[in-house]
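User: Please predict structures.

Assistant: First:
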Amino acid sequence: MSDDFNMSMRKFLKQVGVTSQQAIEDGLRKKGATAGQEFTAKMVLTVDGLDIEHTVTGKIKGQD
């Protein structure tokens, strides 16, 4: 793959990671989540123009 592709992919994934973490942390704070509480998270990736729907699920534990 080209350097332009790699750079755009890395930039997109970094943005997804950073903004998703911020949104989750805000949600945990607003909920008043405590250590030991567990939440199911789901991320769905779609790409306009490509036949892609990729879903990732996981568990996120509350913080102290």
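Second:
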Amino acid sequence: MKIQRLGRAEASGEAGALMELATGLAGAPQWGRAVWDGMIAGLDERGGRAGRMLFGAFDGGRLAGFAVCAHAADEAEIESIAVSESVQRQGVGRALLEVAMDELRRAGVGVAHLEVRAGNTKAIHFYVALGFVEQGRRAGYYRGPVEDAVLMNRGLNQ
């Protein structure tokens, strides 16, 4: 499995594969093409102090997972991480998140935040295993079904 940071050109070329992978996963973002295009346009190409980073996991040239992070100044949000069901529980998500956190650290980020559905215990255990700590909840944040969001963060100097 190869993990790489995608620039605008690479991400544009993978937009269809990104959307297809996400569409096939119930917990992944069901963003439309316009949202993906806007996210790709906001990719930080030069490691600046604000922007977005997109990382892809490739298995023999095929997209097997991705992570999207937004960052400004010294804080970041892990906006999404998704791994194809065919390679789940093989360390792909961990590798994506570790590479993302290394890149964010190099960009001067000191803390990463994320939110996850309260009922997604598999993801919560995954994040806890990687050092994330629950910081609070947003009651009724998610729709379809209505569910709380668990807010978590992790210092990146760990």
